[in-house]
Specification:
The termini are far apart. The chain folds into two domains: about 300 residues, TIM Barrel (Alpha-Beta Barrel); about 325 residues, TIM Barrel, CATH 3.20.20. The protein contains 27 helices and 20 strands. The model has no long low-confidence stretch (mean pLDDT about 95). By secondary structure, it is α/β, with parallel strands linked by helices. The structure holds glutamine and zinc ion.
């Protein structure tokens, strides 16, 4: 008989209890015992959810106060000296690594593969001796045993741990030693009565070199040699290629988990390579998205597996940990019944698992009966006018190649724009948002709660805009912004005004530590019923003679930061969003905006994990940006903004965006990326961030000046703008004012200085 399993569960709490408790603990209002108690009850609730749904195998050890990668590094003693080294223990040391303290920097954070979850990057130091510290895993295992739940400890494996750490150019030299610690761990789990363990090695899907695969093969041969319990090797987020499968096929694992949602095409090769007698854990329920599973499609895959290896060797599972989805769709009473019936959050996915397990065993007639409800919902969703807006589909269908191009080449456009805008050299500007003060947040809250009227709120926002405009005029900035006080979030703000988006009430997912996001649910065809930003722009422009930028979020970023529909390719959804934002571009231009900025903060995040898939993504993502901006007249200047500095391999794509001006993060990397633009002969203008907004530290005028001077050694002055790295919404007013004053002063000094000759 097939069994069911879950790789991991959300841990922040259905009501974000962990967030509340963590933040209270950090603020000193609850003790560590109280925090531990909250955590314990969250774990107990998770075990109950899994067992209550009738799922056979629950994960244990996947709970973390802050991040599982950090816990894994602690488990094997890879803790930085400044965070207490391998001896560190207790919550204070743990949170020191997460959050730092005066003079002690925390671990760096980065995105977990292509998810929006951020993990803490372990640091490898010279002379670090890995050693086992299994207390957390063992005590959580005992909790599960005491609750009478069959639990499988889940850990991140040694290969993924080392390859995602920093501080050692040759991390795999540590693999052999680390594997001995993992061997001790398996022994400890077996001693504690665990019948099996799950070792996550998602790095295996990224396409590893032969050298790395050899190291992996050697390490796992040793790890599994004489193993005292069953081992599941878990992979997810993409496919295992032939060479990786060849190695896995020769390992004495008991079960292999693969992601058949992201990479259904790997099923054939996986079945062919699966070690004889090993089970296949088939990830057929999307652990990254919120939609009810198409059970017939899932059963096609499962039936195929059963035919190939028999139901006894099948485990049915979500594609990856459920960490990336919210808890319960049933709870979303604010959504209409139809839409809610299309959704499956964590709890609904558990129910789907057991339903699939029953359907596998069922006769065709029983199966029809089991699936009748799900099939009805699926067909309603497929045929609903909300997912099939004829006007939207017609518009996409009529697109021609030329609809993606502006009418005039960039050189001629820039000349027309210079004529129109009459800006000084090194024009100064900001990226869009100004400090989101407590006042702004409480006005928004009161407005949402209905205690502040629409007129009152609008009045308040006008006051904020007027203030931001006045500040910018006083500072002497050249190109102004309205400050975005009306936007809670750069995606949500647009999603709320577009058709095709819905907003959950409880749909929080962990982003990092105690931070959560509540992504919009993009369920249907997207269109823009009415202008979204024009009135605010008009008001802001009416207050100044200087150019006021129209500010929009680009289609790729809106796509990337939403739960996206799974019933059509992402590219198609993105094209619909592009057309909706394009409508706004046209309206802003018609209202008189001379500059329109289309932010694409998340363009690079969407990059597929495997190199061979990246070009196709970049091609359509860039196309969608181009489509958004295409109707802008030549004399309208299109800006874009991106919050990162890794442009080396992306530069030709960035050029294909065909934006007139691009602002980027650059201050932390010392303007290095400008060499890439220079070597490419990049035709557009560039605003390399001259100060880091991520820190409250105010840069001195000299610092900004020298960054600008540095920029001018790489690019012509008339190609450069002067601006911060990113939006200012997380900063306070005093530091913002001072930093911008220094930016304006430094720019003025540079304008006096002799034009540098780019090296
Ligand atoms: N215009 C946005 C802001 O200034 C851009 C934010 C971002 O790049 N993440 O806040
Ligand atoms: Zn940014």
């Amino acid at each position: 008989m097939a069994r069911t399993a879950v790789l991991g569960l959300p841990r922040i709490g259905a009501d974000r209890e962990l967030k509340t408790a963590l933040e209270a603990h950090w603020a000193g209002t609850i003790t560590s015992d109280e925090l531990q108690e909250v955590a314990r009850s969250l774990r107990a609730a998770n075990l109950q959810r899994v067992a209550g749904a009738g799922v056979d195998v629950a994960p244990v050890g996947d709970f973390a106060f802050y991040d599982l990668m950090l816990d894994t590094a602690e488990l094997v003693g890879l803790v930085a000296e400044r965070h207490g080294g391998a001896e560190a223990s207790g919550l204070p040391a743990h949170f020191l690594a997460c959050r730092g303290a005066a003079g002690i920097t925390p671990l760096e954070m980065t995105k977990w593969f292509d998810t929006n979850y951020h993990f803490l990057v372990p640091e490898l130091e010279d002379g670090q001796q890995p050693r086992l510290r299994a207390d957390k895993w063992l005590s959580h295992l005992r909790e599960a045993q005491a609750a009478g739940v069959t639990a499988r400890p889940a850990v991140i494996g040694p290969l993924t741990l080392l390859l995602l750490s920093k501080g050692d150019d040759a991390p795999l030299n540590r693999l052999a030693e680390l594997v001995e610690v993992y061997r001790d761990l398996l022994a400890a789990f077996a001693d504690a009565g665990a019948p099996e363990v799950q070792i996550d090695e998602p790095i295996l899907v990224t396409g590893l070199s032969d050298d790395v695969l050899r190291a992996f093969s050697r390490a796992y041969a040793r790890l599994l040699d004489g193993k005292p319990l069953e081992v599941t090797l878990a992979t997810y987020f993409d496919r295992l290629d032939e060479s990786t499968l060849a190695v896995i096929g020769s390992l004495p694992i008991d079960e292999l988990h693969v992601d058949l949602v992201r990479a259904p095409g790997q099923l054939g090769p996986v079945l062919a390579a699966l070690p004889s007698n090993a089970r296949l854990s088939a990830g057929v329920i999307d652990g990254r998205n919120v939609w009810a599973t198409d059970l017939d499609a899932a059963l096609d895959k499962l039936d195929k597996i059963v035919r190939a290896i028999g139901a006894d060797r099948l485990t049915i599972a979500p594609s990856c940990s459920l960490l990336h989805v919210p808890y319960s769709a049933a709870r979303e009473q604010g959504l209409d019944d139809e839409l809610r019936s299309w959704l499956a959050f964590g709890e609904e996915k558990l129910a789907e698992l057991t339903l699939l397990a029953r359907a596998i065993e069922a006769t065709p007639a029983q199966r029809d009966e089991l699936l009748v409800e799900a099939r009805t919902r699926a067909s309603e969703r497929r045929t609903s006018p909300r997912t099939n807006d004829i006007a939207v589909r017609g518009r996409v269908g009529r697109l021609q190649l030329t609809d993606y191009d502006r009418t005039t080449p960039i050189e001629a456009r820039l000349r027309e724009q210079a004529e129109r805008l009459q800006l000084p050299p090194l024009p100064t500007t900001t990226i869009g948002s100004f400090p989101q003060t407590g006042d702004i947040r409480s006005a928004r809250r009161e407005h949402r709660a209905g205690t502040l009227s629409d007129e009152g709120y609008e009045q308040f926002l006008r006051g904020e805009i007027a203030h931001v405009v006045r500040e910018q005029e006083d500072l002497g900035l050249d190109v102004l912004v309205h400050g975005e006080p009306e936007r809670n979030d750069m995606v949500e703000y647009f999603g709320e005004q577009l058709d095709g988006f819905a907003f959950s009430q409880w749909g929080w997912v962990q982003s990092y530590g105690s931070r959560c996001v509540k992504p919009p649910i993009l369920f249907g065809d997207v269109s823009r019923p009415a202008a979204m930003t024009v009135a605010w722009w008009q008001y802001a422009q009416s207050l100044t003679a200087k150019p006021m930028k129209g500010m929009l979020t680009g289609p790729v970023t809106i796509l990337q930061w939403s739960f996206v529909r799974d019933d059509q390719p992402r590219r198609e959804t993105c094209t619909q969003i592009a057309l909706a934002i394009q409508d706004e571009v046209v309206d802003l231009e018609r209202a008189g905006a001379a500059i329109i900025q289309i932010d694409e903060a998340a363009l690079r995040e969407g990059l597929p994990l495997r190199a061979e898939d990246q070009d196709a993504y970049v091609a359509w993502a860039i196309d969608c940006f181009r489509l958004t901006a295409a109707p802008a007249r030549p004399e309208t200047q299109v800006h874009t903004h991106m919050c990162y500095s890794e442009f080396a391999e992306m530069i030709e794509h960035i050029a294909r965006l065909d934006a007139d001006v691009i602002s980027l993060e650059a201050s932390r990397s010392g303007m290095e990326l400008l060499e890439v633009f220079r070597d490419f002969d990049y035709p557009g203008q560039i605003g390399p961030g001259v100060y880091d907004i991520h820190s409250p530290r105010v840069p001195t005028t000299d610092e900004v000046e020298s960054l600008l001077a540095l920029a001018e050694t790489r690019l012509d002055r008339d190609q450069l703008w002067s601006n911060p790295d990113c939006g200012l919404k997380t900063r306070g007013w005093p530091e913002t004012r001072e930093a911008l004053r220094h930016l304006v002063e430094a720019t003025a000094r540079r304008r006096q200085a002799k034009v540098a000759i780019p090296a």
